Amino acid sequence: MTNFSAALQFMNKVLRLPDNDLLKKHFLEDISYRSDQRNQNNRFVGLQEYRIVSKRIANDKGFTVPIEVLILTSSKYSMPATKTYIERNSGKQYVGIVFRDDLVYHFESIFDRFRFWGFAIRIACTTFFNSSNRLNKALCIREVMEWARIAEILQTYGMKEFIDFSGYEKDSNALTAFLQSRGIHVTKIPSPGPLYAHYKYVKADTLVLSSAYQQEEKTYLAANWEVNHYLYWPPEQSHTYEYIYANSNEPKLKTIGFYSHGEWLRRMEGHADPGLDILENEEALLADLSQFLQRHKDYELIIFPHPKERKSERTQRYYQQKLSGVSFSFSPEGTPSAHLFHSVDVGLMAYSTLIFERIGMGYKTFIAKYTRSTFPVEGSSLNALLFNNADTLEKQLLATENESRSKYFERNNLSNHLISNFTNQL
């Protein structure tokens, strides 16, 4: 059986599972970040997906040296850092990495090509006439080709290990089941942020946790996880900035940094809503922060925009409207926010992986929670950092105004969140 035939057969098997089966349920119902969510209402989204696949150019040329493990990433920008991260933490010397959107399957027979066309036509017709899970079903056209190419690479190089950095995608667990059926060991590495949004159900041989908060979540989520082994590593990008903080100066007092998730812009662009009330919390935070800064004019505000915001002409106007009457500046363009934790005394956020990276490196942070979102979970030590109105924001800021970083961590019982302690104690 060819790799494509095996991938197609397994995907059809998943689609035929009972509707209440966890593998099928998450495959068809989980959020995907690979397409504009407005395509859920697009009758032609199946044909659109076929066009995306047919126009791909085979950029994954293979590897010129023996490879021990294959890594899948959805971020082309971070590929070099991801490769270094795996080499440093796994001890593997020969690591191969592929960018998901570059994957192109090389059909081994004309029959496979006809099978693909037949599958694509079936999905396109189904999604044209039936709106139920339309977008996720249409994405199957793209995914079956990628599964086949991944299986082809693993087989060609005799690899038995696969590492997935896109475990948040809706087909990740089904892909894991497919590869496990072929004797492949699958490791998943989430970002250091909350697992609740994208990892309620996890299928993996090994799951890497990269923040102490994820260990707290594990208590609540592990009942729905099919995981055999856990590893505790630092955040993926930490090796690119740890050295900065080894001998850095203390932040200037009365400096506040707002770390944006760029949710207002994501919504405008049709991105999926992860259901964490990020936009509501960010805009309430900005409103109350504006009040605080108008009362306490000796404070300085620096905004750390999301990379998406850097590219938008609307960003300056957005913050001028939200922070009317307040003086602020943007962090230096071209320098990642994680490299500038020492430039402000206090960081404010609603939701971002930077929460865990900033706390992990030992810097003061507070978290906006104006709604009944699921973050942080009950019993988490991060609950001590919350504020939910102008009064509680002011109390948090004034309480730490002249407080050392070590005292802040001691008072809020956060020492286990330091990256050095998290990765060493487990």
How are the SSEs placed, and which strands pair?
Elements: H1 3-15, H2 22-29, H3 45-54, E1 69-73, H4 79-90, E2 95-99, H5 110-129, H6 134-156, E3 161-164, H7 172-180, E4 185-188, E5 202-209, H8 212-221, E6 225-232, E7 255-259, H9 263-268, H10 278-295, E8 300-304, H11 307-310, H12 315-322, E9 329-330, E10 346-349, H13 354-360, E11 364-368, E12 386-387, H14 390-399, H15 405-411, H16 419-425
Parallel strand pairs: 1-2, 1-3, 3-4, 4-5, 5-6, 7-8, 7-10, 8-9, 10-11, 11-12
Helix pairs in contact: 1-6, 3-5, 3-6, 5-6
> What's the Cα radius of gyration?
23 Å
Give start-end ranges of low-pLDDT stretches.
none
Class inferred from helices and paired strands: alpha/beta
Largest sheet: 6 strands, parallel
Give the termini distance in whole angstroms.
Answer: 43 Å
The count of domains is 2
Structure annotation, total helices: 16
Strand order of the largest sheet: 2-1-3-4-5-6
Shape: globular
**Helix fraction bin:** 40-55%
Average pLDDT, rounded to a whole number, is 92
How many strands appear in the DSSP assignment? 12
Order of helical and strand elements: HHHEHEHHEHEEHEEHHEHHEEHEEHHH
Strand residue percentage = 5-15%
